Amino acid sequence: MEVEYGGWKHCRRLANDEIEVIATTEVGPRIIRLGFIGEPNVFGESKEDAGRTGGDVWRIYGGHRLWHAPENRLRTYWPDNVPVRVEAGRDSLTLSQEIEQTTGIEKTIELRLWPHDNRVTVVHRLRNRGLWPIETAPWALSVMTMNGFAIVPQPPADIPQETAVAPMAYWTYTDMSDPRWRWGRRYVTLRQDPSGAGPQKIGLGCPHGWLAYAVAGYLFVSLFDYQHGATYPDYGSSVEIYTSPEMLEVETLGPMTRLEPGQSVEHKEEWLLFRGVPVANDDDSITAEVLPRVEAARASHRST
């Protein structure tokens, strides 16, 4: 269904009885809204970018987007300010960006909304349309609404204590003493705080294959496949979390891949959305309120 949203006149909407997903088509591909029908958007939106199109300056817009890693200012920030190609089914959308002139990469996002579950399957595809091989990794980024906190599970506890279990990457501006971080025994969390003093970011190897964002009783979970033994960008990061006073991003990454001309690579996320989840920012509450929902979602997926 075509709808107006956020100042754009030609968005596409998928909905079941409870949740809706809205994607822009005049810019993108961007998934600008995910939420329960008639309730707040769990994705963040940039009000100053709402409805804008065209131009050669990259804009945050908000919502969910597809990039390719590792990050490079000249290569990564290709402005997605022009219309995308759209293929629509009853419960699905395929959104394809024009080929990037600087890289020869074509980005595609495929969405499928489950008809009887608050779940969205999101397939991200990078295709090399250029003349030479490239080394890259698919990188899926979701801008979340403000005043919540991101959750990343720590590696399994049943590994021998003398064994290193997962990498962690940090940036020049990462400050581990910043009070927005919580370094728990079972989870690392990062709060979005409009009064926070600048950006924070880390990357983690996450063999559990999920991360989450909790805000105002809503819980967003992203499931993904972690490939043991693969080489991930940013010193082994399969997830990254970033915040500033304006936003928070939860990000998942696929392994580094060599793409010959014409070849493509895919990275899949499964989005889950819950309401009325009384999760607090501590390990015991996360284990009680978040972990059972993740495990149930994985079990239901295996049974389908």
Give a concise summary:
This protein is mostly beta strands. The chain has helices spanning about 75, 235, 285-290, 290-304; strands spanning about 1-5, 10-15, 20-25, 30-35, 65-70, 85-90, 90-95, 105-115, 120-130, 135-145, 150-155, 170, 180-185, 185-190, 200-205, 210-215, 220-225, 240-245, 245-255, 255-260, 265-275. The chain has one domain (about 1-304): Beta-galactosidase, Chain A, domain 5, CATH 2.70.98.
Question: Would you give an account of this structure?
Answer:
With 304 residues, the protein is mainly beta. The protein has one domain (2-303): Beta-galactosidase, Chain A, domain 5. The chain has helices spanning 73-76, 233-236, 283-289, 291-303; strands at 2-5, 8-15, 19-24, 30-36, 64-69, 85-88, 92-96, 105-113, 119-128, 134-144, 149-153, 168-170, 181-183, 187-191, 200-204, 210-215, 218-224, 239-244, 247-253, 257-259, 264-274. A hairpin with a 5-residue loop joins strand 3 (19-24) and strand 4. It is globular and about 50 Å long. The model has no long low-confidence stretch (mean pLDDT 95).
Topology:
Elements (H helix, E strand, L loop, with lengths): L1 E4 L2 E8 L3 E6 L5 E7 L27 E6 L3 H4 L8 E4 L3 E5 L8 E9 L5 E10 L5 E11 L4 E5 L14 E3 L10 E3 L3 E5 L8 E5 L5 E6 L2 E7 L8 H4 L2 E6 L2 E7 L3 E3 L4 E11 L8 H7 L1 H13 L1
Antiparallel strand pairs: 1-2, 2-3, 3-4, 5-10, 6-7, 7-8, 8-9, 9-21, 10-19, 10-20, 11-14, 11-16, 12-15, 13-14, 15-18, 16-17, 17-21, 18-19
Salient structural properties:
seven-stranded antiparallel beta sheet, ten-stranded antiparallel beta sheet, 304 residues, mainly beta
